[in-house]
Amino acid sequence: MPTIQDELGRRSLLYSLLMPVMNQFVPGLDKGKGMYFLFVKSEARTPGGLLARPVLTSYYKSPHFVERPHDPYTVYTSPNEAILCPDSYQSMYAQLLCGLAQREEVLRVGAVFASGFIRAIRFLEKHWRALCRDLLTGAADPDTVTDPSVRSAVAGVLRGPDPELAALVETECGRGSWQGIITRLWPNTKYIDVIVTGTMAQYIPTLDYYSGGLPLACTMYASSECYFGLNLEPMCKPSEVSYTLIPTMAYFEFLPVHRSSGCAADNPDPSDLVGLVDVKLGQEYELVLTTYAGLYRYRVGDVLRVAGFKNNAPRFNFVCRKNVALSIDSDKTDEVELHRAVEKAVGHLEPFGATLVEYTSHADTSTIPGHYVLYWELRTGPTPVPPSVFEDCCLAVEESLNSVYRQGRAVDKSIGPLELRVVEEGTFDKLMDYALSRGASINQYKAPRCVKFEPMVELLNSRVRCNFFSPKCPKWVPGHKQWSTTKSA
Question: Where is the GH3 C-terminal domain positioned along the sequence (predicted)?
Answer without folding.
Answer: 337-454
